[in-house]
Amino acid sequence: MAEIRKSEGLIDWLDQRLAVKAFMRVMMTEYWIPKNINFLWAMGVVLVVLFGVLLVTGLLLLMYYKPDINLAFDSVNYTIMQEVEYGWLWRHMHGVAASATFLIIYIHLFTGIYYGSYKKGREMIWITGMVLFIAFSAEAFSGYMLPWGQMSYWAAQVITNLFSGIPVIGDDVVIWIRGDYVVADATLTRFFMLHVVLLPLVIIVVIAVHFYSLRFPHVNNQESEVLNFDMESKKFLEGRKKESKVVPFWPVFLSKDFFVVGFFMTVFFALVCYQFDFAMDPINFEPANSMKTPAHIYPEWYFLWNYEVLRGFFFDIGGMAAMDIGLIAFVIANIVFMVLPFLDRNPMNTAPAHKRPVFKYWFWLLVCDMIVLTVYGKLPPTGVNAWVGFVAAVVFLGLFIALPFITKHEAKGDAQ
Ligand code: HEM
């Protein structure tokens, strides 16, 4: 057994058992972050704070929610919203935080693409980020089912049905996921389990791995400059703080992040108190009814872009059914972001998009196209809308097919 001295206080007591001082040094006070970054680099910490808000408000809602198709709707809309003191506040905070999480995830993701923060040596940061995106998507979808309103029911119907497109075993997979032939009580209780236990646990573990995977490649910077962290940190530790290009994660970087978090939380509470409606669909205030299909079924705003890719292919092409083409396009749309580091054939060029002559057009076209897909994903897919959706879906896929060629051409240019 190791020698244990008489401790000189709580920290020393913990340090002798858990090496907390070394841990704090490696992950906080000597975790070096470049100085040359802007407020966009605070989005990761804003996401951690939002996840905290979702956990706390979720626990409070859990005390009154009933995961049973005969009780769920009333437990949310009457018990929590009208009878429990401040129940409305926890529900609005939970709903607005879910929407805000996706808004910030998209900003965080596009910041990573703009500054090439997924490039050589940083693939694990990107992949764990995308795992978080998938886990949050599953978390949001399962949470949307819980109030058991019309949209909860019909969105579950449509989304679980997508799995029937898997060749041979598709229909069995749908029954396995639903736990029944139709979306029913078994479906609600298993999605409840995913929403409150399994997915939050997965998210907590993956956030830790995401943060840890940044430790060695280090945080990127606005010029995507490759820094000698050993040399720069030495300058900082020797007191040449102005000259050094880095600062420690704690207290310098995090204290600046807290300022951004403070500003963000002010906007967040303004939304919670005055604009909470945007995070709640009016159709979901009607109890689920399997005999009454809503005129128009659509997901929450953050899934509209990939929903529109699915719907965009509305006519058969070369003997292939429209539904199958849409499904293939949908699967591709959900994979391309994950494999982005491998589609980029110029992994050593870490310049930001505005310094890359062709890539900058690719980037902004992608952003505009995803906005068009999101807007049209909410409109009925008829007439001109259907054609706009089709073109935007084709452009989306085309952009990712073009990326390896654009970046390879760029790499040749860099080599000359
Ligand atoms: C809720 C989920 C997420 C959390 C809590 C989270 C958290 C963080 C934190 C704390 C950082 C360090 C500070 C910063 O650069 O903001 C970071 C960096 C990063 N994250 Fe995430 N992240 C999440 C989702 C994602 C997603 C979906 C992606 C996209 C694939 C992603 C990609 C990245 C990248 C590339 C960096 C490095 C940025 C740089 O080096 O400049 N993250 N994340």
Protein described:
Residues 10-223 form the Cytochrome b/b6 N-terminal region profile domain. It comes from Sulfurospirillum halorespirans DSM 13726. GO terms for molecular function: electron transfer activity; metal ion binding; oxidoreductase activity. One of its GO terms (cellular component) is membrane. InterPro entries: Cyt_b/b6_C, Cyt_b/b6_C_sf, Cyt_b/b6_N, Cytb/b6-like_sf, Cytochrome_b_N_euk/bac, Di-haem_cyt_TM. The chain is an all-alpha fold and 416 residues long. It has two domains: 12-297, Cytochrome Bc1 Complex, Chain C, CATH 1.20.810.10; 298-416, no CATH class. Helices cover 64% and strands 1% of the residues. The protein contains 16 helices and two strands. The chain has a two-stranded antiparallel ribbon with strand order 1-2. α5 (87-114) crosses α11. The mean pLDDT is 95. Protoporphyrin IX containing FE binds at residues 41, 43-45, 47-48, 105, 108-109, 112, 117-118, 125-126, 129-130, 132-133, 136, 207, 210-211, 214, 219-220.
CA radius of gyration: 24 Å
Number of helices, counting only DSSP H or I runs of 4 residues or more: 16
Order of helices and strands: HHEHHHHHHHHEHHHHHH
Termini separation (Å)? 61 Å
> Do you know the CATH topology of the largest domain?
Cytochrome Bc1 Complex, Chain C
Number of domains: 2
CATH superfamily of the largest domain: Cytochrome Bc1 Complex, Chain C
Main β-sheet, in a few words? 2 strands, antiparallel
**Quaternary structure of the protein:** single chain
Helicity range of the residues?
Answer: 55-70%
- Could you give the order of strands across the largest sheet? 1-2
| Structural classification | mainly alpha
Instruction: Estimate the global geometry from the Cα principal axes.
Output: globular
Protein name: Ubiquinol--cytochrome c reductase, cytochrome b subunit
Subcellular location: Membrane
Membrane topology: Multi-pass membrane protein
GO molecular function: electron transfer activity; metal ion binding; oxidoreductase activity
